[in-house]
Amino acid sequence: MTYEEFTSSIENFSNYTQDIKPQSYFDFPLAPILEAETRLRNHNAKSIAYFSMEYGLSPSVYNTFSLNRPMSVKNQFFKHEVFSNFWLSDYVFRIDINKMLDIPIYSGGLGVLAGDTVKSIADLGLPVVAFGILWNKGYFKQNFWYKHGQVPEELSWDPHSYPGLIPLKNRVRINTKDGLLHLRLWKYYVYSYDKKNVCPLILLDSNVVENNERFRQLTDQLYRSDQVSWRIMQRSILGIGGMKAISELGFDINTYHLNEGHAAFALVEKYVQLKDKNQMELEKKKFVYTCHTPVAAGHDRFGIHDLDQIFLPEYLDPMKDLGKETKDSTDVNLTYICLNNCRRTNAVAQKHGEIMRLQFPDFAKRIDAITNGVHMHTWVSESYAQLFDKYGQAFADWRRQPKNLENVTRLANDQAFRKDLFDAHQGNKRNLFKVVKPWKLDENVLTVCWARRITGYKRPSLLFHHVDQLLDLAYKVGPLQIILAGKAHPNDNIGAAHIQDILNHIDQLNNHYDVIKVLILENYDTYFGKLLSNSVDIWLNNPLPPFEASGTSGMKAILNGVVQVSTLDGWVVEAANDDIGWIFGYEHHGPKIGSEQELRLDEDSAALYKVLKDAMTLYYQTNQQGVIDLKSSWIDKMIHCVRRAGFFNTQRMVEEYRDRMWK
Ligand SMILES: *Cc1c(COP(=O)(O)O)cnc(C)c1O
């Protein structure tokens, strides 16, 4: 593609002339874009289209584009409230961070994984184009209200002044019983760490004047779920609209990768597009599917009656053909569309593979497992990157070869390295404590973090299940600092109740701030995800096994030497024998999956306090008010964490996708 062809595809290019020039794209090199665009149109490149409902790209912390004109204030970040058991501070202070809003097209782990995946795709220079949706109102903005818990607020941002994002003149249309739905296409380019390659990301947007008011709102809020028709339409935009966008843009695609069942209608669109329907058996062989959902209830199912309200028979018939669970089902199940028709399927951790095979015995033989990872360049802290550079003989070329982090074992007995490793960690901890300065956290006090999506099976308040026991530990073994963060889906009442529960527990600890400081931060996002996972001493992960398909935040933590306290689930099963921290609580074994409702809070909180006591004891032997015992096995655990980060990264993961799914 030439520069002229590129710029002529942009809608209102005159707005972008300061940012897009023959050599540069928002101050990044333009050449890799033209190369990638050309390659995607070349049949011999055997390109891959990757579909995902959400992408957490975290430009606020990594590969930040610059904008040579004013950015709407809506795209700068807001202030964050803190709820703590030191409410005098909460009352007077906020966290005030001057940063860019993350492109708000994700809700949590699934999106962050998709974002990390496309970044590693770019790092490896693979011929892939990604498809998603431009969520005009993002997910939601979280407010905590005293005595109310979470109060969701609509988020607004401005895609027209978001650096790196450009609108195209191209449109695609989906035919419905309510008339044509028009979709505008946007582009965003995800660069490799060395800025030599890009992975283009195409975003579909229904907010165009050609549409009626209702259609215009379809791409407002990610996972809007108050009516089934919203859920159907959002998934249709991704699957059907995404496939149409491939034709509209002239890409030549060899493999279609459906990241989660949301994109299942891509198979339906493929069928509709075929002139000779007998070709479908061949075309199906081009589709692969990654399942992230550990429980049956999590899979999308739509009543045929509801689909019939929206679609003409041209679409409805293949939906029924491809996605009925049984002959006389009255539902179309998106997971079944994928399982029935894709060439390959994978689960996202080995344990999840085992669970999926139990759940779908008919497909067991075809279910592979590729363990998730995180994008090393995004999640490594500055101080750990410097550490790896300083010991470059051991870590040689770690930026290109994340696997080289495994060489940390060569340094395990090097006292200077052990000191530098611990010092780098303390530096990260100080950075975090500067952000929450008014709450007076102490770098020599053991700090635990629980930060993730707030939902039942993740057991957000397990640590507070018996507050008296937690207090007892703090008085007898040593002080504690606890930081929490997370969003509950706005319609998830149980999740919201958990937040309220946590706020109440924090209240209960009001008179004990000298031994236990508890902070909960508003609006957990990738910025906080990085800040917290880089910096605390213990990353707490306590889902009810076996319901955490993988989990990834702990992987961000181990990359930065942050020790784990975790139940045995998801990715942690694969690191259970590596001494990366402490494992506790209920374990899932055998052929029965069990119930997500049975949370085992009594047994598992007791088990948690027991390992926490061990961890606290070891920590205060290791760090005696800033005097560090370099021989401590705490530092061995930190080293083991870094070693395993050599495996739990998306570069290794994408290489496995390349070799096992896409070939
Ligand atoms: C990493 C990350 C997640 C995923 O965390 P899990 O451990 O999978 O629960 C969710 N949200 C944000 C903002 C993240 O950075």
Description:
This protein is an alpha/beta fold. It folds into two domains: 47-64 and 107-298 and 334-372 and 655-662, 3-Layer(aba) Sandwich (Rossmann fold); 376-647, Rossmann fold. The protein is 37% helix and 18% strand. The protein contains 23 helices and 25 strands. The strands form six sheets. A nine-stranded mixed β-sheet has the order 9-10-11-6-4-12-13-16-17. Helix 7 crosses helix 10. It is globular. The model has no long low-confidence stretch (mean pLDDT 96). Pyridoxal-5'-phosphate binds next to helix 4, helix 19 and helix 20.
Question: How do the strands and helices of this protein lay out in sequence?
Answer:
Layout lengths: L2 H6 L11 E2 L2 E2 L2 E2 L1 H10 L6 E5 L30 E3 L2 H6 L16 H16 L3 E6 L7 E5 L3 E5 L11 E12 L2 E13 L6 E8 L7 H4 L11 H22 L3 E7 L5 H9 L6 H5 L2 E4 L10 E3 H7 L2 H11 L7 E3 H8 L2 E4 L2 H10 L7 E3 L6 H4 L2 H9 L1 H4 L19 H21 L10 E6 L15 H10 L3 E6 L7 H16 L7 E6 L4 H10 L2 E4 L11 H7 L3 E4 L14 E3 L17 H22 E2 L2 E2 L4 H13 L4 H13 L1
Parallel strand pairs: 4-6, 4-12, 6-11, 12-13, 13-16, 16-17, 18-19, 18-21, 19-20, 21-22, 22-23
Antiparallel strand pairs: 1-2, 2-3, 5-20, 7-8, 9-10, 10-11, 14-15, 24-25
The structure holds pyridoxal-5'-phosphate.
